[in-house]
Amino acid sequence: IRCANQAVYPDGSITCEDSDDLADALDQVVPSYATSTLQFGVSTNNGWDAAIIIRNLLDENNAGYMSASDYGEFFGDSRFRYRTTPQRPRSISLSFTKRW
Q1: 1: how many CB neighbours lie within 10 A of its CB?
Q2: What is the rounded CA–CA span in Å between residue 39 and residue 86?
Q3: In this structure, what are the phi and psi dihedrals at residue 71, rounded to the nearest 5 degrees?
Q4: Cα 70 from Cα 77, distance rounded (Å)
């Protein structure tokens, strides 16, 4: 958490001098999350390989990134101060490879 006017103490703790600074800093915290990827493949003796890959297996809907800007306030709309980029939805791909 980064505050505009923060104090860092020798024990590593950080405090914000202003409660508004702390509230702004807490608004920028992206919650932790985990995703799963499943990949299964098969190889044959005649040189063919096949694989199926499922990314975001459980189709979790998380914020992957949060940007902080003051553009929203500049244009008079504070909703755009902190924009989150959603995580990619579940994707399934199938791959075939031929070795010569």
Answers
A1: 13
A2: 23
A3: -65, -35
A4: 10
CB 90 within 8 A of CB 55: yes
Structure token pair of residue 69? 């800007």
Side by side, which strands form the sheet with 48-55? 37-43, 48-55, 91-98
- Give dist(CA 25, CA 84) in Å, integer: 15
- Phi and psi for 97 in degrees, rounded to 5? -135, 140
Q: How confident is the model at residue 94 (pLDDT cuts 50, 70, 90)?
A: very high
Distance CA 44, CA 34 (A): 34
Confidence of residue 10 (pLDDT cuts 50, 70, 90): low
Which of 1, 5, 27 shows the shortest CA–CA distance to 16?
A: 5
Q: Helix (H, G, I), strand (E, B), or coil: what is residue 59?
A: coil
Q: Cite the DSSP H helix spans in the chain.
A: 19-27, 71-74
Residue 93 exposure: Cα atoms within 13 Å on the Cβ side: 9
